[in-house]
Amino acid sequence: MLEYADDLRRTVLSASSMLAALREEAAMRRPAENKWSIKEIVGHLVDSASNNHQRFVRAQFQDDLIFAGYEQDAWVSAQRYQDAPWQGLLDLWREYNLHIARVMEAVPDAVRMRERRRHNLHQLAWRAVPEDRPATLDYFMRDYVDHLHHHLRQISALMP
Questions:
Q1: Is 116 helix (H, G, I), strand (E, B) or coil?
Q2: Reported confidence tier of residue 80, pLDDT bands at 50, 70, 90
Q3: What burial class does residue 52 get, using C-beta atoms within 10 Å of its C-beta: 0-12 exposed, 13-18 middle, 19+ buried?
Q4: Mean residue pLDDT across the chain
C-alpha cells in the first residue's frame, strides 16, 4: 500500500463527511468577488482529479512526463460548479479520488520510480520540478495529494 494513496483515501473520506454537513448556501458563498466559493474549489478539485487521472494512466505508457495543461478558472466557469447540486458534486469528488487512490496503487513500482528526464512538471506540478532535473511519476502523484491538501486548507478557512 502506498502511503500517499492511503492518505488520499483517508483525507477524502474525512473531508467529504465534514463537507456534507455544510449547507448549500454556505458552500456557494464567495469570500471576494473574484475568488472561488467552496463549491467552486471542490469543482476545481474534480477537474484536477480528471486531468491527473489521465496523466497517471498515460505516464505508464510513455517515456516522458509531458502532459497538456488546462485553464483552471475557465474550466470552473464553463462547468458552472456554482450551480451544481452540492451533494452530487461532493459524491463525484469523493468517488473520483477513491478511484485515483486505486490507480496510484496499481502502478508498478518500477514505472512509478523511474526517472524521466523529459517532463513539464515545472509547469504542471503544484510544487514545480525544475525543467533540468529528472522527475518521477511517484513525485507527481505525491504532489497531487499535496495539492488536494492545500485546497482543503483553503476550504477549511472558508467554513462558517
A1: strand
A2: very high
A3: buried
A4: 97
